[in-house]
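Postdoc handover notes: sequence design on the structure in folder B. Input tokens:
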């Protein structure tokens, strides 16, 4: 679960844990991840917290190597990490816009490549790419975010049949 430290991500983690799913919590805020892990473990599930900045290649590699090192078989991937930039495009930072794309699209694709081979081999698995209603409407002062949401809603609709 990317973006697990708060909001929708934390909520999905709680729903999975209540249903007996072990959960890998991925986010940047290690203390929030550990706090959520302690809460989830009260549901008698196992957790693994991985603190990583998925907008960087190092962060994605860290997640991949942590999963391998801990012998984690991923049954479900929830791509939820994201942030928005609220400014007219010509006033926003190109660096921040690129970082947003790296986090919300590039990391999603890379993590899918990490877990998909195992899912295909086992002929089972789930993927949830959390998107926004912004995918379906114009969004003033959030041009790149809205474009990403549109792509995010369309990517991998039938990866596991």
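Designed sequence:
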């Amino acid at each position: 679960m990317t973006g697990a430290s708060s909001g929708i991500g934390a909520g999905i983690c709680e729903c999975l844990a209540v249903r007996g799913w072990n959960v890998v919590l991925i986010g940047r805020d290690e203390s929030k991840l550990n706090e959520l892990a302690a809460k989830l473990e009260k549901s008698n599930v196992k957790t693994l917290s991985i603190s990583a900045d998925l907008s960087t290649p190092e962060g994605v590699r860290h997640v991949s190597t942590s999963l391998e090192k801990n012998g984690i078989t991923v049954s479900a991937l929830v791509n939820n990490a994201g942030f928005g930039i609220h400014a007219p495009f010509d006033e926003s930072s190109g660096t921040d816009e690129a970082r947003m794309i790296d986090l919300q699209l590039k990391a999603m694709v890379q993590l899918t490549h990490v877990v998909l081979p195992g899912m295909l081999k086992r002929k089972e698995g789930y993927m949830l790419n959390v998107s926004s209603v912004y995918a379906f409407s114009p969004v003033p002062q959030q041009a790149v975010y809205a474009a990403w949401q549109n792509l995010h809603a369309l990517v991998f609709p039938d990866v596991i049949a």
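Context for whoever picks this up: Helices lie at 7-18, 30-41, 57-69, 94-122, 143-154. Don't rerun without checking with the PI first.
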